[in-house]
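During the second year of the project, the team shifted from modelling isolated chains to modelling whole assemblies. The rationale, set out in the original proposal, was that interfaces cannot be judged from single-chain predictions alone. As a representative example for this report, we include one of the complexes processed in the last quarter. Its constituent sequences, exactly as entered into the pipeline, are reproduced here:
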Amino acid sequence: MPTPLLSIQGLKTQFNQPSETIKAVDGISFDIAEGEAFALVGESGCGKSISALSVLRLLPNNAQITAGKVIYRGSDLLRMPEKNMRDIRGMRISMIFQDPMTSLNPVMTIGAQIAEAVLIHKQKPANEVRKTVISLIQQVGIPDPEERYLAFPHQLSGGMRQRVMIAIALANKPDLLIADEPTTALDVTIQAQILQLLKDLQRQMGMSLWIITHDLGIVSDIADRVAVMYAGQLVEVASRDDFFNKPLHPYSRRLFDALPNIQKRNELLVTLTGAVPKLSDSFVGCRFAERCDYKESSCTSTVELEWTDFPNQHRVRCIKAEQLELTEKSGDVLAIPSAELGGDSSLIVKDLKVHFPIKKGLLKRTVGQVKAVDGVSFELAAGTTTALVGESGCGKTTLGKALLKLLPITGGDVEYKGQNLVGLSEQAFKQYREQLQIIFQDPFSSMNPRMLVGDILEEGIRALQSDLTEADIVRQCDILLEKVGLNSEARLRYPHEFSGGQRQRLCIARALAVNPSIIICDEPTSALDVSVQAQVLNLLKKLQQEQGLSYLFITHDLSVVAYLADTVAVMYLGRIVEYGTVDDVLNNPAHPYTKALIKAVPTQDMHVEKTDIQYVGGTMPSPSNPPSGCHFHTRCEHVMPECREIKPENIKLSSSHRVACLLFMPTDG
Amino acid sequence: MLTLLWTDIAMLGLVIGVIVAIWRSSKKEHLRRPWAKVFNNRVGVVSLTVVLVFLLIGVLDSVRLQHHDPLPNGDRNEHAQTLSVLDIILTPLRLQVEKTYSQPFASTAYSKEMSVDKAGVSRWTYPRLLYGGAHLQNPESDKQADILSKLSKGLAQGVAAWCVLIFIVWLLIKNLFNSQSKGVSTSLLTLLVIFCVVGMAASLAPYYHILGTDKVGEDVLYQALKSIRTGLVIGGLTTIVMLPIAISLGLMAGFFRGWIDDVIQYVYTTLSSIPGVLLIAAAILMAQVYMANNPELFTTVEERADMRLLLLCLILGITSWTGLCRLLRAETLKIREMDYVVAARALGVGRFQLLKRHVLPNVMHLVMITIALDFSGLVLAEAVLSYINIGVDPSTYSWGNMINTSRLEMAREPIVWWSLTAAFVFMFSLVLAANLFADVVRDAFDPRYIK
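Output from the structure prediction step:
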């Protein structure tokens, strides 16, 4: 076996805090070969990013590397003087970070920022630097490199900025590129472009890639080898094919089981019990034992678990790996709701418009309109789920908020129980507030940090029923907390004392406090880990069963759509381009945009052939100045001349399926 | 008989308000927790104790009684004076007025004078002081031993008084020493130090001018102690004037936007572009003219001085709300877009409740920091304003006035340093203690810091 490019041996990193020592990385060892793409997978808080930062010695001040070696081309990076280390960083090993919005300096042109990276290690004449920089910008697939050289970061979209970050990282032709969740902050279509770019660059330059992610889809898309991290340790290392065909560690298995998909629609998702253990604890034996279904007393009897080796360099840290016959576990089957729920309580949205005026000048005159939602129609039947899918900036969230009258509606009708809600005054609308509720994406900003959980829940109860006694309210709070699977002690605690998943449950409890019939879920699981997402999805599904709730589920994650939704609306720049049942839209997509979205989702299914997929190029145009005719014509691969002029009308493909695309125009002349 | 001036009423009202607020919040579990944290923090407890001692002096100085000073022959003086409780406690300091400057612990005046002795020979000597070290026959040789003995006596008295205090507290709360709280022991230790200092000062003060005397021979320690009230009034009252304006306008501007925002922004931009000193000078001059034209409304010198102090607080408050208002507007703009505010709107919560429950508590840290910074700033501003004669009335005791008068003597050789030093030490300890305490409180109340 040839010497690996980078070899990490028994690396331990800990955070020293006055109250406790957090062992963020606790003895990880793996090798990255030349030209290999290595993926480190795990849930948040298991120490993935810290291990990458440890390798580059970029740790915060209170962190300390206590043991281990990082051998790069024969020398130990951890024992190298800081001066030599600077030559390694950026030169031989470079890193890109998750958030492209904050990793670029907003007051420097991107050309200057890339040039800085080029010049840091060797001096070159100015015109040569410019040439190098422009070729780098070209290499990462940014059009018009000459013009972009002088652009500032705020003039570029998120995907473009991530490309600039990659260009900076590549400036010195490194041997190893560390990518820490490089696409998490990006849309699916952009994510697909960036992943493709990384793959191409890796192939061209022959460099190694160490990608850190929580998304198994990305892993299967890009990695050659995979390591799974859990509570500061690696639990499984395998080649991609072995890992996806036959994961051996119970934790890896459960990660796959927790992924939602269309086959699991009628059952609850399998979830892991409990939570990731605190890294300040001291462990005996297997760290996963507490949450493992195959636990035995021997799992926690040895102090430190050894690796079990399998053929093809497949290693698992589980003492029972050889005996275990891990099977795909499926959750409890949900009973199909028997009774038809009140048919009249469906929400019918007709031609809804939400326009924001653009004001300019001293007198704030309106000079234009942002058509955030531009004539949207759909129906949300009682007890069902409608998913609203689209990239960020397409007006999904605006639509959701406008339905609750949290934003002013410009035109159209929203009909509920035979009443048009649009024309109602705030006072008259108040009685419908209890019917319509909302859950937000970010579980951290959606609860007032200075209110007790009890007060947060109470607020909803009191706002609509002001005549309750104190004891009644406490009882109702307890019932609500129990419904979302939390202890009644939670009432006297502050939101920050809960984890992301628990907070999202609290948000659901707050929405349930008023007994709504419709809940608008604005990406409620996109900030959560896979296993926690499964818990929240199960809860939502269970509540729908028990209480006949309807959900308007706003998301960009098509696997969640497949699992949860009954009907799907695909939105692009304020318009619904395709609408139909889950089966119609996901299995027989008609609109080119829907097809592109589905293609862009990385899937962990190894059988899907994905060699020459043409991903949708470009980024979404600004909604303040949308393209004429069909909004999608700038990115569409089937674009026809008339697409630029005619706004496509809805065309019925079947009784439940409609699409807005000129390709499906009946050719009647 | 009790007589109260306007600032006394405001001061006492402020103290009572704070006590009521503490009493009410002590009943709520989630508010008791952060306070328990404050009391477990050594810095917090020490600074709180110091602030409370300052506050006690201020309160004692705000309760005014009709007092009849005893005449030298022991009879009751028919002419009553309005004096604060503090004045009565400090009677020896108040009445032992020398002719002019004297150094701390001096027994002779600071400058030589021509005097005629018994033999009728005029000599150029340092005359003996009327009170400072007057009990000594031979100051040069006896003074040091006398001071030491008085110090140790005072120290013993201080410790004894502290023991009595502990005993009383122990009678009230039996399990005092079993509690795990660091706060009680820290507070008692701080008090021990304070008691010792007070005991020593109390035993020395009737015989010496501990901090010397000023130009008209008044005891500097007395002046410094009397100035505490002025400092607290300026810091506290101005904040009370400024806070409601800043908070209500800032929240309204940020929350309602539209024309309300425009109007409020125009008001504070206009106000903050007028130099504050100009406004204050104009207001004070107007007040002086008014007082001169209506002598029947202000019968005593004290009333006039008090009205001027109150007016100064008012005008300082009116000129200083713009900074906080701007901050609060910006923060409110951010918070109104937060998901939890949107969620509350979706629940049908009214606008006033939204502001009260969701916005206000989340901007309170800004208010706290601003109060702490402004308090020290205001105490210092008072000194600056007194310098250009638009501050408090020259007859009011204040650190600003002390600094201002001693400023003129800085060029003297040898230098008169004690007034300035006394004002500095007192001002410094109050401002430092207040800042440290505010810091601890803010940390304890920020839920994001609770781990």
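The two ends of chain A are 68 Å apart (CA to CA). Residues 2 and 271 of chain A are 41 Å apart (CA to CA).
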